[in-house]
Amino acid sequence: MVTVDVERKSKRSLQRLLPRLEKELTDSISADLNGWQEFVERIRKYFPLLFDLYFGLYGNRYDFFFHLEDLLISLARSWFARATDLRELDKAREANPLWFQSNQMLGGVCYVDLFAENLEGVKSKIPYFKELGLTYLHLMPLFKAPEGENDGGYAVSSYREVHPPLGTMEQLSSLSRELRQAGISLVVDLVFNHTSDEHIWAERLKAGEEDYADFYRVFPSRELPDAYERNLREIFPDEHAGAFTFFPNLFRNGGWVWTTFHSYQWDLNYANPAVFNRMAEEMLFLANQGVEVIRLDAVAFIWKEMGTNCENLPNAHKLIQAFNAVARISAPAMLFKSEAIVHPDDVVKYIDPGECQLSYNPLLMALLWNSVATRKVRLLSQALATRHTIHPETAWVNYVRVHDDIGWTFSDEDAASLGVNGYDHRRFLNEFYLGRFEGSFARGLPFQENPKTGDCRISGTCASLAGLEKALNEEGPNAVELAIRRILLIHGVILTAGGIPLIYLGDEIGTLNDYTYRDDPAHERDSRWVHRPRADWEKYAGRHDPACMEGRVYLGLQNLIALRKDHEAFSGSELDILPSENDHVLAFIRKHAGQRAVIFANFSESQQTIAARILDQYSIYDEATLHGISSIPGQKDLELEPLDFLVVGT
Ligand code: GLC
Ligand code: GLC
Known about the structure:
Radius of gyration: 25 Å
Strand order of the largest sheet: 1-2-5-11-12-13-14-17
Structural class: alpha/beta
Shape: globular
Bound molecules: alpha-D-glucopyranose
């Protein structure tokens, strides 16, 4: 809440600033008077909030007012550059702000080059996206990046240029329009924690330009890095120890740069308001290309403070809220999705209409895989019961796989309350998914195994982790059937739990691990490439054939997607756990607009029973079967088939 004092300060600041803006922007204003009026209206509405946040972050700077004015000029310029159709979209979204909670929503994510060579290729796949039912398409980082290693594009050298092999910015903006006409919102990353070391800001720093000295966090000696590192976690320990990298050509005797991720990814210094202003411009530039959702990459790390672990700090939230206020003023249609793969208590702190309206749900993802391995649903059920409800104007993005590794980010306290030791259990999960645990069906690879802490994360495609690779290569039809059921079961949960389901494209046809990344010098050190294969369109061609593996997965998934889209109960995210009294069966109720659906997900390979008493209590006998192979008996116990995803409702 903005206090009376801040309200007064912000009012006076705006009174002083508006005439200066009018002077600076005379030409644009006279060319677009209506636009200017609309902008002034939004500024009046959101300035107190923006001012409060900006003042909280930068109010102690001697040149605060200079940066504030600079920011407002950028906001106005970006608004003037916003195309008419996007301004119309702004209005439509403002009139229907919860559009993303609809059961019609379905997300997909892919790499431009791996899925379709380039942006024109992606355009040619629009009919496929429509066939699948997508309404949201996240294209992985497609901006100019260093040749060779660039962390799959997460090292950005220019936010205003498309990586040349993929196409041009004009093509991106034309693609966004065609997607929108097809009912699909374009999602791209704002990689805003760091840039590549080839970004012009880094180049200017290297050249010794004073204005760029504090765009990044650079230190002439180990003194401060050592002090910071006392409290820091290592994120990519395979790549470099600690959080800093030494560059011999900086300063006179070299310098240490803050590099949370790879050495070529330099962390930006948001304590400098110029960095905020320039990134706000980059963000609005992307919004003006027609990007509707910005995936805020690595949100946890953007603010640093000595003596803390520099993750999830209060000012990180202020920064994102300030970016959000910027978007509300100059690109109101745009939403934020947070990528915080951290403790569940911290994940939810980013979710708010005034911060990130959308968030990855890493807990649901990790616990789905936990249930697949243990065949037990206690942790999953507990998480859905206690951690699923978020602000009613926001939504989870639920997924089973993305381009990253799986980290076991459940809460140790939650696990302990069920008698599970978090540390030991993570070790078991890693052993299981690495295929080392006896009887494991999974074929995963270790990612960033840290011998110092015993920490390890898992790479691998959905199908390979769910047992399909092993089943096809070593077992046979029975095991193949079970693996396919597992894939469909976990997708069933993300499609019905509430929020936006997100499919990692390739998973819809059961794509297996691709070990050829080991032959590519730019990828060999990063096992995540095992689950980033090039799309095989010959395999896609089999997707309608129920006799082949691709078709079985694809058609199964299509049924689940149709289930979601045909039933309004799957809109919104109201969810109640139904105590199934069976450790292997996750059961929950979804309700929306007077509709109801009840889900029974059997995570075990054997038949499971749900007592007649429970079915009676929840009036299940009166319901129709909407999905699944088991059938609802008459007034008797329910026998759930192995790995079945049974849904009943009206
Ligand atoms: C995000 C991305 C990941 C990348 C990291 C650094 O976590 O998802 O792929 O390595 O940010 O940008
Ligand atoms: C860490 C980060 C997360 C990132 C991941 C990449 O877990 O917290 O943001 O996605 O590394 O592997």
